[in-house]
Write a structure and sequence with these properties.
about 425 residues, four-stranded mixed sheet, 14 helices, binds ligand EPZ
Length: about 425
């Protein structure tokens, strides 16, 4: 059944909200369960992408047990090292099983991820790294088939671009490789640090995560992974954006301050008040109209592409001009025309959008195109006059745990309803 959100804008947000565990940290760690054969993961968000990962692991023959915010995985008797089309198609992150399967079982057959709404998103860098480690990789019938005789070997890998998924695949493969792997120009995202910590807790020998050189001393096996996932920095940033649009005063709990500094600085530059109450708590307050502020998305520690749409939504109502440049994905502006339907003044020029702040947004029907674009439309709806209806919210359910429930607890008027449209 297709659903939509119906939002009556104009209510300020007030109260306290707790950030869930990180989606993009949970996914690779769940696949790291393939390496260890035993995993107990805590603080896992209840999301569609987590369901898909669990389904994939259970299809492979792992025993998967779900409890509220926990996942337990145990190796079964016979493991099928394959990720089929229908699951990879619904979640590109399925590609993260490739490195672990190869390292642990010496072979893998994974459907090649197809196109994506936000850009081409090839996996060539993942494949190059694994082939350098000794895997024989072929692509046929839409599948990546990878094999290695014996163990993968530790090598030096220099990425052309600090790819997040590519770094995660190489890191997981290197854990069980023979000898030392040095990953250069590695992605520095906090989710990679979380993955490295989870692996280390099980006996993996990893150093340098969070910098652009990660060194891994391969071991023959690792033990059980028992780990609690970091809070979701993008969900936390999205709540900053929600207050920046709707106004009000909100305390955010489990707020990963240290890894959100680029985002915090930009919201502060725009005039939002963000007060650190403790290591894990902030108070966010909006006083008057925000100022137009420029951003350029960059690999971590720069401004994250996953916050670009939500920041743009905020700037639609700020005073003056904001210039928003997207450098990570080539087509991540699908929300621009939808925000324009709410009355925003936006002009796309290549990989840049010029936002001219308007006095008000007015509710309309809009359609979500990808996860973060959906979030930008929902929070814009909180600030728009009258009613905004957001369609295709299944995108949102992939990555935000109970967003409407959390927003409602802060006083927003947002309801989930059956869609009258076929989407
Ligand atoms: C991760 O995707 C995140 N997904 C994305 O979050 C996030 O937007 C992205 O990193 C950037 O921060 C997960 O963690 C599951 P990349 P990933 O490899 O790993 C190009 C969300 O909304 N590239 O760093 O796929 C690629 O096309 C999602 O939660 C190659 O050319 O990102 C892109 O332009 C969306 N060849 C750029 O690098 C490759 O082999 C960054 O991709 C790999 C990547």
């Amino acid at each position: 059944m297709m659903e939509k959100f119906v939002i009556k804008g104009g209510r300020e947000l007030k109260g306290r909200v707790k950030i869930s565990g990180s989606k993009n940290a949970s996914l690779p760690i769940l696949f790291a369960g393939i390496l260890s054969g035993e995993l107990h993961l805590k603080n896992v968000p209840d999301l569609k992408d987590i369901d898909t990962s669990c389904k994939l692991l259970s299809r492979m023959g792992f025993t998967v047990e779900r409890k509220p915010s926990e996942v337990l995985i145990r190796q079964g008797n016979s493991i099928k090292t394959e990720a089929p089309y229908e699951l990879v198609k619904t979640m590109r992150a399925s590609i993260l099983c490739l490195g672990p399967l190869l390292a642990r079982y010496g072979k893998a057959r994974v459907s090649m991820p197809g196109g994506c709404a936000i850009g081409a998103r090839p996996v060539n860098l993942h494949l190059r790294a694994l082939s350098k480690m000794g895997a024989d990789i072929r692509i046929d019938h839409g599948y990546i088939t990878a094999e290695v005789s014996g163990r993968l070997k530790g090598v030096d890998i220099t990425f052309d671009f600090p790819t997040v998924g590519g770094t995660e695949n190489a890191l997981m493969a290197a854990v069980l490789a023979k000898g030392k792997t040095v990953i250069k120009n590695a992605a520095r995202e906090p989710e990679i640090v979380d993955l490295a910590r989870a692996l280390r807790s099980a006996g993996a020998e990893i150093e340098g995560e969070g910098t652009d050189v990660i060194e891994v001393n391969g071991v023959e096996e690792i033990g059980k992974i028992d780990y609690s996932v970091m809070p979701d920095r993008i969900e936390a940033g999205t709540f900053l954006a929600a207050v920046a649009l709707a106004g009000g005063e909100v305390e955010i709990e489990d707020f990963p301050y240290e890894v959100l500094t680029a985002v915090i600085e930009k919201f502060e530059e725009a005039g939002l008040k963000i007060e650190k109450l403790s290591e894990k708590e902030v108070l966010v307050r909006k006083e008057g109209r925000l100022r137009g502020t420029n951003i350029v998305t960059q690999p971590y520690p720069g401004f994250p592409t996953d916050m670009q749409a939500q920041f743009m939504a905020t700037m639609c109502l700020a005073e003056g001009i904001s210039v928003i440049k997207e450098t990570i994905f080539e087509n991540r502006f699908m929300h621009v025309l939808e925000l324009s339907r709410l009355g925003a003044d936006l002009t796309i020029d290549g990989n840049t959008v010029v936002v001219k702040g308007v006095e008000k947004l007015v509710g309309a029907k809009v359609t979500a195109t990808d996860l973060r674009a959906s979030a930008s439309l929902v929070i814009a709806g909180l600030a728009a006059e009258n009613t905004t209806e957001v369609y295709r919210i299944y995108h949102l359910d992939r990555g935000y745990e109970k967003l409407e429930v959390k927003l409602r607890s802060l006083g927003a008027d947002i309801r989930r309803e059956k869609s009258e449209l076929p989407y």
